[in-house]
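Page header: ASSEMBLY MODEL / two components / 228 residues total.
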Amino acid sequence: DAKTTQPPSMDCAEGRAANLPCNHSTISGNEYVYWYRQIHSQGPQYIIHGLKNNETNEMASLIITEDRKSSTLILPHATLRDTAVYYCIVRVGENSGGSNYKLTFGKGTLLTVNP
Amino acid sequence: DTAVSQTPKYLVTQMGNDKSIKCEQNLGHDTMYWYKQDSKKFLKIMFSYNNKELIINETVPNRFSPKSPDKAHLNLHINSLELGDSAVYFCASSQVAGRSPLHFGNGTRLTVT
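Prediction written out in full:
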């Protein structure tokens, strides 16, 4: 699986949009971009994933550049409860064998939402 | 109606002891995992089972032995506990399809003294 690069930490004001960047310049054509977050003392939580089109769900939006070498997770109205470590992960899709089941976490970005 | 539940939440034990952590998922998923998060907060996969069959074993010492009695359960047995085993252990599950998200439990904090 391709590696990702994320800033170690970011701050955001409560109520504002939080834009978390991720670089994945070695991403392969069959690799998806996944975002998870881990709130303190809890298990990681899935947020969103995408291949090349922008995606939106009730939690966040995912913007993937046209060359797919980077992406941005957007939390449109950050709250204090969004303070967490956010992980950007690239992973192969279906029909890719046993390693398909492995999700490899990096260091992530600690997002702190301030009141 | 917790999706992935682990027990116990905290486990404190002495070196050399044998302990088990249990995990159950009620999502109907076919694949289950064990992850370890060390003191530096790195999350590393240890094992993965698909329909009770081991599919990933990430160079984990033989003292660690996963057991899957059915596809809704994946337990982790640890023999001869060492200080370095102290960590938070997370269980997770997902559908077989590769793109499906992982659902994690809230972890078991193991402290070996």
